[in-house]
Structure formats: C-alpha cells, structure tokens
Amino acid sequence: MQHTNPFWRSFRRLTITALTGFSLMVGTQAMAADDSKGTVHLAYVEWSSEVASTNVARALLEKAGFDVKTSALSAAAMWQAVASGDADATLAAWLPTTHKDYYERLQDDIVDAGINLDGTKLGLAVPTYVEIDSITELNDVADSLNNEIIGIDPGAGLQGLTEDVVEEYDLSLRLRDGSDATMTAALSNAVLNDEPIVVTAWTPHWKFARWDLKYLDDPQNIYGGAEQIHTITRKGFQEDMPEAYAILERFEWTPADMEEVMLLNEEPGSDPYENAKKWLDQNEERVKAWLAK
Fold first, then answer.
1. What is the CATH number of the domain that holds 264?
2. How many Cβ atoms are within 10 Å of 153's Cβ, its own excluded?
3. Could you tell me which residue, 35 or 117, shows the higher pLDDT?
4. Can you give the pTM of this predicted structure?
5. What local confidence, expressed as pLDDT, does residue 156 receive?
6. Total tally of structural domains belonging to the chain
7. C-alpha span between 15 and 19 (Å, rounded)
8. Are 123 and 218 in contact (CB under 8 A)?
9. pLDDT tens digits, residue range 87-142?
10. Quick one: CA torsion of 101, 103, 105, 109, rounded to 10 degrees?
11. How far apart are CA 160 and CA 173, in angstroms?
12. What is the residue range of 210's domain?
C-alpha cells in the first residue's frame, strides 16, 4: 500500500528535527557511560505498548550487566536512528502493515532480530454504546462525532493507514493528529460523559482493559490482519555486542504480559522503569530464559 507524498515529506521533516536532538543527546550519554559490558541505545515511540516493552528490555539488559539508554522519538526518526546507527535497536517495529513503508525503505540498513510480540490488531474503535459496527457506517453518525477521528502522532504508520481509510471509504470525517496520550485523554473524557467518539486503536493497549470498546469492521481490510511487533537492530550490532543482541533476540512476551505492565504504568505517579523491574522480579523463570541462565 503506497502512501501519499505529504506523508513522506512529513517523514523527512520529522526525521531531521528529531535526529538532530537525538544525536546531541547520544553524544552526551556516551561520554557519561561507565560500565564493563558497554551501552545499548534503545529507540522507541512513546506509545503505551512501546513504553512497556522498552523499559522491560532496558531492565533485562541491565540485569545482564549492560548500561542502557532510551530515547523516545517519532516513528520516522526511530527507524532512521536504527538504520543510521545512532541507536542500536528498537522493540517497536509493527510489521508487516503499520511500518511497511519504513521497513521497505530502510531494510538494507537494518537487521530483523525477530518477533517480540505476536497477536496485535489495528483499526478504528468506538465505545460499545456507539451504535455502529463498521467503518462504512461512520458517515451516518459523523455529526455526532464532531466530524473527526481522534488519531495519534503524525509519523505513525497507523495514521498513514487511517488516511487511506478516510480516502478509500470516502469518509466525511477529518483525521486529527495527536499522540497516544491525547487520544486516550479524549477517549476518557468521552466515556465519562457517555459521548460518541471514534479513535485510532491497536492491541495490545490498556484502554481495552479499562473501557468497553469495540473495533469497527474493516470490509476493505485496509488495516490488514494480525500483526507482530519485531525487534530491529542496526547492522553490526550483533557482531559488536553479541550477548546484548542474543538477549534481545530471545525476548518475546504475550499481549497479556504487556497489558499487565501497561496497567501498572497507568497508575498515578507510577514509574515505567520501576514497574518493569518489579515485573521482571515477579517473573524470574522468564528472565532466566531470556538471559539464557
């Protein structure tokens, strides 16, 4: 599926802006690193799912004796950071559909270290009290939805797919850019007031555990079927840091695991990094398998 030129203009603009700051930060972090096994740089998109997996991977690598630095970037900049070698790895590659364009353009400069989570889903979701079941019905209730779909960050593959959905289904709704946080805040407010809303959605996500939501049918299958989240590394990472690569290659968990950590992260005042360490302490057998101990 091909995206429009404006998407790739956005890709380039977001990449240049984010990577400028990222490179300066990495340089500062590298000078500060003082460890025996080296520093692993993980890039991620600040979605609740990727916050969970990245912090668990960070805590896991630290148990093995590595220093770990993490950087939250746009999806475009995240992929480019790994491809250029400014980051070592990301655990946030949604394939084969969501991040198809990034993968196809950068596949010669990256290494796919395998699936870290299977059983994902993408689409548009509404609270169950909204009396429609298909994307084809959205125009019928557009006025009640304020003629808009609440989306996430503009560099996300899900946003690009939703642009295609708006076009292919000839929807009269406008796709709003935002973030995971702004989307869930809008959803929370709508549910609290029993108001209709439609949002871009993916599984795993803690919002499905908190509220009664349903995916809208996608008869044209634009969002595709089930996806997997892959771990992607820079070229040469396996040779440079074979133990760290092996740990990331072995790391695989379930949607239920991820949602458990995501719910911990939604507790007021909680720290995703501390939650990740707590979760690992409660799952010692998994840790041993991932560390091959």
1. 3.40.190.10
2. 21
3. 117
4. 0.72
5. 83
6. 2
7. 6
8. yes
9. 999 999 999 988 999 999 999 999 999 999 998 889 999 999 999 999 999 999 99
10. 170
11. 15
12. 120-215
- Tell me: the pLDDT tens digits for 250-279? 999 998 899 889 989 988 999 999 999 999
Same domain, 111 and 15: yes
Looking at residue 48, its pLDDT comes to 87
Single-letter residue type at 275: N
268 cis-preceded (ω within 30 degrees of 0) = no
Same domain for 110 and 78, yes or no, is yes
Residue 269 burial (10 A CB sphere; 0-12, 13-18, 19+): exposed
For residue 168, give both structure tokens. Answer: 């292919």
Rounded distance, CA 18 to CA 26, Å?
12
Q: Using CA atoms, how far apart are residues 207 and 184, in angstroms rounded to an integer?
A: 7
Do 11 and 109 fall into the same domain? yes
